[in-house]
Amino acid sequence: MSDTHKLAELIARHAPEDGSHSTAIPNLWVARCSQPSDAMFSLQEPAFCLIAQGRKRVMLGDLIYEYDSSSFLAASVDLPISGQVIDATPERPYLGMRLNLDIALLTEMVLELESRDAVLGEPVRGLCVSTINEELLSASVRLLQLLDKPADIPYLAPLAQREIYYRLLTGEQGGAVRSMARCEARLQQINRAIGWIKRHYNKPFSIEAVAAEARMSASTLHHHFKSVTAMSPLQYQKQLRLQEARRLMVSRAMDAASAAYEVGYESPSQFTREYGRLFGVPPARDVARLRAVQERDPSAA
């Protein structure tokens, strides 16, 4: 049996129903989906994502990434993305895993592998899709196999995760992942800016305040922020606002105007326009569709 089939079998066993499932291994999630899905908007944490069966499309700003069992996705910072399963059937469901990454550990390992004078550099896009190799796939299988041996998890899971980090950094397609970690100084500044925006997403936007938090000039922040996230700081805040408004309308039954004010919009009409541009339909239609989906499949909530 190939490692891809082993991975699919392990995920299918530990994700018996559609949805995303946490596991006994910290930071490890497995997912199943039996049919193509609508685009789901979320804030992607730093993570290594691998598909054993099916295909997925991820959108970051205007950029589109697609990957399947021959590739993997890695993210180095919190990014507002939309993800959509595009290849899945009940007979052959989408099966995937996600391992949230410790960027500090990843950077520490880069320092062990390279000279320290290579640490600083120009930040790269915070999301990449690369071809997977046999070593990385085998390391991922070994990590998931520990789910069948719970007593081994506290002792062997950290070693298995460290091997995945090592394979990410040393594989043929590891250049982009190394670049993510190698630019930690700049990424720390971008992460400080992201943190400010997340804390103040419902307040008036101030590029000067964000730049001060990042300890960069406004022009330098704008350049590096866009190179990492594929959007400007203001666009990033707008996506956070709209995603939170969507959550409030679905989970707390808020009307569009109330949700708009809650997340910082002063003009309901502007909110409706921007909501429609991001999600494709006006708020009321979108929320009605999402509630209908939840009634049919509570796990989609």
Automatic annotation (TrEMBL):
Transcription in keyword set: yes
Keywords: Transcription, Transcription regulation
Pfam families according to UniProt: AraC_N, HTH_18
Protein name: AraC family transcriptional regulator
Record domain HTH araC/xylS-type: where: 191-289
The species this protein was found in: Stutzerimonas azotifigens
UniProt KW Transport keyword: no
